[in-house]
Write a structure and sequence with these properties.
Blueprint lengths: L13 E4 L25 E4 L42 H8 L16 H6 E3 L10 H10 L4 E5 L8 H7 L11 H25 L5 E5 L2 H9 L8 E5 L25 E3 L7 H20 L1
Parallel strand pairs: 2-3, 4-5, 6-7
Antiparallel strand pairs: 1-2, 1-4
GO molecular function: hydrolase activity, acting on ester bonds
Family: Belongs to the 'GDSL' lipolytic enzyme family.
Protein name: GDSL esterase/lipase At5g45960 isoform X1
């Protein structure tokens, strides 16, 4: 089967940059680092809808999520522009690192300078990929010294991908291997590129980290009962087969217990999954905090 390039744009790379983080942080056994006073710490996020906290609220696009039922399980129980029912993995990371409770969107006109200095997200839903090497080089040139790249998840397991590629979208809801295989291949290339860039920029003090999102999400899907999930092939919103963005709206039915679902809509994971992805990435965050 020939892969359709736009399908691999559904979930993009995440760039987390922590230019300076003070040493001596709390132990990794703690769930969160609550001292939000690290003046030297900052986190900048680049990516797509999986890490967009609401930038698309401020641009002319149909691909938004600043309306119910999105955000129904957020702290305020209001939609924020995050494409999920609650928080994103990057929110959990920022909170754990003691930087801030939630990462705000860069385009929010009400942001104060303090917010900009401690960290924002430049991510925009539907943005796809930028040229990898030139993007990282640009971030390094601007002062980024701790750069984290997150690999692609099992793309073939997204409900929307299954719906569009299954012979029977209702009865055959298994992952589409060709898409997942492409994601694995991309991740292998990405890791090799990071090794090369680390070698070339080692003397500058730059440090690159890779976070695997494929393995943890695949495990949540294939061994779902271990995590308390019951539904892995469809999202909580609507039929779960095609709904996302404006198709998941205030008039759309949503499941009563989202904690049993891996996906919130047909593309994006639930808050619970994002938390588990944060837990999987926590060793990398701890390594950066101790650097």
């Amino acid at each position: 089967m020939k892969l359709n390039p736009p399908a691999l744009r559904l979930l993009g790379l995440v760039f987390l940059i922590l230019p300076v983080i003070s040493d001596g942080g709390p132990s990794p056994e703690q769930q969160y680092h609550r001292n939000f006073n690290r003046s030297s710490a900052a986190i900048l996020v680049f990516g797509d809808s999986t890490v967009d906290p609401g930038n698309n609220n401020f641009i002319d696009t149909l691909f938004r999520s600043n309306f119910p039922p999105y955000g129904r399980d957020f702290v305020t129980h209001n939609p924020t522009g995050r494409f999920t029912n609650g928080r994103l993995a990057t929110d959990y990371i920022a909170s754990y690192a003691g930087i801030k409770e939630f990462i705000p969107p860069y385009l929010d006109p009400n942001l104060e300078m303090e917010e900009l200095l401690s960290g924002v997200s430049f991510a925009s839903a539907g943005s796809g990929f930028d040229p990898l090497t030139s993007t990282i080089s640009g971030l390094w040139a601007e002062g980024g010294r701790r750069i984290v790249l997150v690999g692609l998840p099992p793309m073939g397991c997204l409900p929307a991908v299954i719906t569009l590629n299954s012979d029977d979208a209702v009865l055959r809801r298994g992952c589409v291997e060709s898409y997942s295989s492409a994601a694995r291949g991309f991740n292998e290339i990405l890791q090799k590129e990071l090794v090369s860039m680390q070698s070339n920029l080692a003397e500058s003090g730059a440090k690159f980290y890779y976070v695997d999102s494929y393995g943890p999400l695949a495990d949540m899907i294939h061994d779902h009962r271990k995590y308390g999930f019951e539904e892995v092939g469809s999202g909580c919103c609507g039929s779960g087969y095609v709904e996302a963005s404006f198709l998941c709206n205030p008039k759309t039915y949503t499941c009563p217990d989202v904690t049993k679902y891996v996906f919130w809509d047909s593309i994006h994971p639930t808050d619970k999954v994002y938390y588990n992805l944060f837990l999987a990435a926590r060793p990398v965050v701890d390594a950066i905090l101790k650097f």
